[in-house]
């Protein structure tokens, strides 16, 4: 049975690395789901054990914030704020700085993937109208969304998982992450400005003419205000109330679904069901592996060789490497069992999120931005992304490592 579990686990995580499996029309979600099915079918876990392995509070929290973000998107908030930003009478470098700050703030509350999905297409058109090359702004959007999402325990899926599993304080984590996130955003702006070297204007060989894709969603002030009000209530509850986070968020999502104007099918249609299935599938696959005792044995053997995976430095390095191999959510799921240090939650959240800027495949937010740009006629290949992503990642990871080292000395 152990060999069977290892084979299934290996195939699932190979699929996480490749984004699919040879000869099969599967993406990461399909692979995770089939892996869970295979674990149940081979009796590596029973149906009851599989159900118990799924961290339902994390899944509910993620679902609830998808509903809140759907409210903001259908209310036209993302389109409105992107157009308002693009119309500011400022220099391109200043515009980039404002964009990075706003995107980071939105991503800390409404999830980085959804912010990128909503803003990227509008941002391309807005840049075109100002005769600006959209590429530096799109890369700024992706990097800022990733870094900004690390500011809270609700900014991205892996942070939600870390916060729920390790029972981290919402306010304490935000205070801990504030400094590296702020410095990371400043470094992102500086890296892009330096790399662009003043070449902000649109050039024919760099970008072809954009093609219309989606109709602009007009701002609905009432729906937007309702979404912002609910989001504020959630944040205040997380900070000051003793209620379970998933219950607060789920209740808020229920309130938003009771609308006289926005049909529930439209709201639920914007929920990323595939991401939720990916989470549940990986929970089952990882639980089956844990039941074999092999992960605990690997940690013990590594410690005997001098590599203590539960210590901060090896954990930081493992988070960086695995996040770029299998993506940050699967990486965090693998590393959570060895997160024993008091600062390991903050370490995992910052390292796995910042590492996602290295390559296009490092985070879903990067892929969303690149795909949205391609549909508008803007090509961002891996080399063009890496010119910004690599220095941003190296500098932000270095700052994070120094900050964590300083905190551990205190």
Automatic annotation (TrEMBL):
Q: Does the keyword Transport apply?
A: yes
Q: Which CDD domains match?
A: YbiR_permease
Alphabetized Pfam families for the sequence:
CitMHS
Transmembrane segments annotated in the record for this chain: 5-24, 30-47, 59-78, 98-123, 135-154, 174-196, 224-241, 275-293, 313-335, 347-368, 388-406
Cellular localization per UniProt: Cell membrane
Per the record's keyword annotation, is Cytoplasm included, yes or no?
no
Instruction: Kindly give the InterPro entries that the UniProt entry links to this protein.
Output: Arsenical_pump_ArsB (IPR000802), Cit_transptr-like_dom (IPR004680)
Citrate transporter-like domain sequence ranges: 20-341
Topological relation to the membrane, as annotated: Multi-pass membrane protein
What are the UniProt keywords, alphabetically? Cell membrane, Membrane, Transmembrane, Transmembrane helix, Transport
The family assignment reads: Belongs to the CitM (TC 2.A.11) transporter family.
Q: Which PANTHER family match?
A: TRANSPORTER ARSB-RELATED (PTHR43302)
Protein name, as recorded: Anion transporter
